[in-house]
Write the structure tokens for this entry.
Amino acid sequence: AGQNAHAIIYLPSDVAPWLPHPQNELAGELPVKPVAPPPASRLLSDPDGFLLDAGTLLGFVYSDRLRLNASGPHPDDVDRLIKRLQLPFGRNEPELEVRLALLLHLANRLGWLRRDGDAVQLTQNAVAAFLDKTRAEQRRTLFDAWRASPEWNDLCRTPELECVEAGSWHNDPLQTREAVLRLFGHLQPGAWYSQADVIRAIREIEPDFQRPTGDYDTWYIRNHTTQEFLKGFERWDDVEGALLRFLVRGPFSWLALLDMAEPSAGSDMHISLGRWGGHWLGSDVPQPEEHPAATITLSEDFLVTLEPGVSLADRFRVERFAQWQQSYPTFIYQITQRTLKRAAERGLSGARIAGFLRQRARGSAPRVLAAVERYDAAEPIQPG
């Protein structure tokens, strides 16, 4: 009693989850310190693998077939496409499916694909515009297309999770994506961090990055393996943490935002905001300079070998007159009677093909060039 008296209010325990979670006053500034750079042997280097896969998809749709059925692309065609992809670091099957789904989603979003009956065809103008870009511009185009897509739901694509259509709940993929990119944009470009430290820092300063109302009880999300529904703030690491870990090893890595290094004994995955990632997210860093190896080699056995740095435009040109053989560590294509016939039927003459090879390819294969230049569908060519 008296002047120092004050009221005490007790809140029922079932009300607490509905209250806003405290946010750090420095929300956005990640309280995380860099770690020692990992040795080069632990770097998970996948230079432009996803971008190379985009070029592969364009070549596949041009020279092969991608049929559609009621549930999406035909499984047999998808299997053949997968054989051509840059499969990074032994990804397990669910993540390969997500990677392929994102590739097809971005191709469709960028207007590269059109439906023609029960098959997919290329949209010539949109594809040509993309192929005419520099590699840096192509990389940025893919990143921006993912960043701006409201249809691509990273949470519901996280392999460990299932989003269940029940009740009236929904998440906002764009809001979540921008929040996470803003948080990762505070990392120092080129510095290395423990992935676990970064996720802990996000939980500390902005745990509600994908749930602005702090609602952890009405979203129907369950664990893919156990089928257990994950509700309550105590399951933050199982939902938000799983999403962040997937973004790191998935879209952030695939789209060249982050670099990764595998953990050593007793440590966690190491991550670094890459050169392009820092540039895209507004860090005061110059645009990186690149000088990739870009050699095309023509051999006497009618094989065309392309280093990964060869432009997507030149690889697409080769796809028009040669048959794919392999994608790693170099791209190899075989010139055959059948591929030259296909090229001729589509208006590409042997003289034009030979002219391209003389201009762009290294190697001494005059007999091959002569055979291609004088190609006649009635006379078979003979690999040496």
User: Anything to note?
Assistant: The chain is about 40% helix and 10% strand.
